[in-house]
Amino acid sequence: MLILASASPRRRELLTQAGFSFNVLPAHIPEDPYPNEDPIANVTRRAREKAQAVYNELLGAPSDCHLERAERVEGPVSCNSGERVGSHEPLGAQAQLAAPQVPQAQLAPPQVAGCPRSLAFGDLGNHEPRLTSRRPLAPPQVVLGADTTVTLDNHILGKPENPADAARMLRLLSGRTHRVITGVALVTANRIETAAESTAVTFLALSDKDIADYVATREPMDKAGAYAIQGRAARWIPRIEGCYFNVVGLPIALVSTLLKSFQLADSPSL
Fold it and tell me: So which residues are the catalytic ones?
């Protein structure tokens, strides 16, 4: 089962468009960047934290209690990527996922089809895997987290705090090329995978009236960089280099590739 750890209607629409079936269970975590944090490190960290938070919630919950508040979405793309970075890590000390106390006899690592022990748990040595439970998650669950930001001159432009902040961001973007970066993370019982997609977006020069009229629509207020490429801002974007869906909020081809690495992309449960 695929769980989308995001309340974004745009990510939901893109996953549905690509044919995935999934539950929606939003994560609620702070989204402020660390001081001087690299933009790619920022979005991959926040994507991972979102996915881990929701996975922890599901792991510690009585059977199906959180899925009762999750919304099920049944699905019915491909894009040319710009830049991608990615990593995978075993679910170990760095993951910081809490698990219930489990009798020693129940701590044997599960067999994961297509996932070598070294990839699933790393070099465990004498250490036991941390994510186990008396009540295994069934069916196997994959939590998808994502986070998108706009960068200009390597500075992060998040969601505007108010209309004046939105106008400030749009003045910075006017007549220039910036980058939109989305970090994605997949978390399962024995593995974390993170990656990022980057797309270059070119803006036409905007007049003060263009900016004021656009901000007045309120469309920029919940968008990284204060604009929506799929909305009214499309009139000012003559070209992009890379994945369009990444700019909307979720690089579908990258997500699909990651899911295939889990041997889950073609599963009926997704």
Answer: 147
